[in-house]
Amino acid sequence: MLPTNQPPPRRTQPQPLPRRGLNPVLCCIIALVLLGLLVGLAVLITYLTLRPKRLVYTVEAASVQDFAIANDDHISAKFNYVIKSYNPEKHVTVRYHSMHISTAHHNQSVAHKVISPFKQRPKNETRIQTQLVSHNVALSKFNAKDLRGEKSKGTIEMEVFVTARVSYKTWIFRSRRRTLKAACRPIMINVTSGSLDGFQRVLCRTRL
């Protein structure tokens, strides 16, 4: 009996296993957790950035050189100040974009100076040593008479004002620029000695 020609058996292709889709409930839970963490971090950063602790300013030392008041009530002098700025924050850096320091007698400015921009890291103390030069500046009649009387007693009373544009930075977030103002008074300066020694430190009032 002749063998019959039979077609070869077909090879069956393995069927791919169906892919399991991500559980939508699990995806929602993960998304909500991540969103909650981001919102919490944003709230924390916003709080630290927008409501930082008040910066502490003090005048550590002060002296005057070449102090003179002319007969026409014009003042000339060199005022030397050491001002300390303290950043009490643990995680916030303060950037000073500009700073203006002036000295006055009874709110009449007699000398001023612009300080270069600088950065103050957390828990940092920055000492600003500066000289404000008053050259033939006109005084009011009252202030000229008052300063002459104080000079005759050996001590004059001055004021120091600081105005700065600052911003706060924590991690990658930075606040908008704000105006910082510090008023330091009274600054009692011995006119008989040009030394910074023996000065009583003055705490400034700051406003942001």
TrEMBL record:
Name of one Pfam family that matches: LEA_2
Superkingdom of origin organism: Eukaryota
Transmembrane segments: 21-48
Keywords linked to the UniProt accession: Membrane, Transmembrane, Transmembrane helix
Main location: membrane
Places the protein is found: Membrane
An example Gene Ontology biological process: defense response to other organism
InterPro entries membership: LEA_2, NDR1-like
Topology class, membrane: Single-pass membrane protein
GO CC annotations, alphabetized: plasma membrane
Domain Late embryogenesis abundant protein LEA-2 subgroup: 83-183
Protein known as: Late embryogenesis abundant protein LEA-2 subgroup domain-containing protein
Organism: Arabis alpina (Alpine rock-cress)
Lineage of the species this protein comes from: Eukaryota, Viridiplantae, Streptophyta, Embryophyta, Tracheophyta
